[in-house]
Design a protein that fits this description.
- This protein has about 280 residues and is α/β, with parallel strands linked by helices.
- The chain has helices at about 40-50, 70-75, 95-100, 115-125, 140-155, 170-190, 200-205, 225, 230-235, and strands at about 5-15, 15-25, 30-35, 55-60, 65, 80, 160-165, 190-195, 210-215, 215-220, 240-245, 250-260, 275-280.
- The strands form 3 sheets. It has a 6-stranded mixed sheet with strand order 6-7-8-3-9-10, with helices on both faces.
- Strand 7, helix 6 and strand 8 form a beta-alpha-beta unit.
- Helix 4 packs antiparallel against helix 5.
């Protein structure tokens, strides 16, 4: 059974449609990555699936119900979202930041219960940030802060976690650290992970399912072997890529690429975006 899917989804800002007639099923208890060039609608789709922004038409269905009609606290117990640029938490300690993940469970004056404190400590431990619990978040490095934001998402105790470019601004070591943490959460706790990534090789290495987007529609969705191909990358990114296999994971790997030139790259944004349906 698929828990989360979109049907004929239209998303936009004011009079401009970014995503039109998009239907997609998100595999449960798997890692899904969304790839595509800047402005193709990746983040817009992620935000609509988590109700950060409304959609103009169509539907986002979770557990058989439209998320637009779901109670906010109930929805927050099912899905957590880590945006691309989390709001500043200046002046707060790491423990205080992570405690915000318990908001959906708080009643009355919002005091933390014994259960809340246990979950907060667990989230800090899992993300390797327990040592920083009483440190101001401003004093942490970019990679450390990113782990704290993930700890806050974990503190929500949701089965689904959405992340918009979680490795942005991090060096190679910290990028790998974050992605391995998310992979561990998926494998050991069966969390459904959905994230936007720019790095094709990271997407191929860590994802079970990849959604490749262009001009607000899905060009291809499937396994890394289905999506990370010369043909798909040519269509999505206008590059001529040489694809090999990662010797450590046996997953497809973009070894090198050239920009397409001349008529091959002479494309325009379509005035009418055709309906795209993709599923597992």
């Amino acid at each position: 059974m698929v828990r989360l899917y979109t049907k004929d989804l239209n998303i936009g800002y004011e009079d401009r449609l970014i995503v039109q007639n998009l239907s997609i099923e998100i595999p449960d208890k798997k890692v899904t990555t969304i790839i595509g060039s800047n402005g193709c609608g990746k983040s817009t789709l992620l935000k609509a699936m988590t109700r950060i922004i409304p959609h103009q038409a169509g539907s986002v269905i979770l557990d058989g119900e439209s998320i637009s009609k779901e109670n906010t606290k109930i929805l927050a117990k099912k899905m957590a979202i880590l945006p691309q640029n989390p709001e500043s938490a200046s002046g707060l300690t790491v423990g205080e930041v992570v405690s915000y993940g318990r908001f959906p469970y708080q009643k009355g004056f919002g005091r933390l219960t014994k259960r809340d404190i246990e979950v907060i400590d667990w989230a800090l431990e899992v993300t390797g940030t327990s040592f920083f619990k009483y440190h101001p978040i401003d004093a942490l490095s970019g990679g450390q802060r990113q782990r704290v934001w993930i700890a806050m998402a974990l503190a929500q105790e949701t089965e689904m976690i959405f992340l918009d470019e979680p490795t942005t601004y991090l060096d190679m070591a910290h990028q790998l650290e974050i992605l391995e943490l998310l992979q561990k959460l998926n494998e050991e706790q069966e969390r459904t992970i959905v994230m936007v990534l720019h790095d094709l090789n990271q997407a191929a290495r860590f994802a079970d399912f990849i959604i490749a987007m262009k001009f607000g529609q899905i060009v291809k969705a499937g396994t890394p072997e289905d999506v990370i191909t010369n043909e798909v990358l040519r269509e999505v990114f206008q590059i001529d890529a040489q694809i090999g296999k990662d010797p450590r994971t046996n997953k497809p790997m973009c070894i090198t690429y050239n920009l397409l030139k001349g008529e091959e790259k002479n494309e325009k944004i379509p005035t009418t975006i055709p309906t795209t349906v993709a599923s597992i």
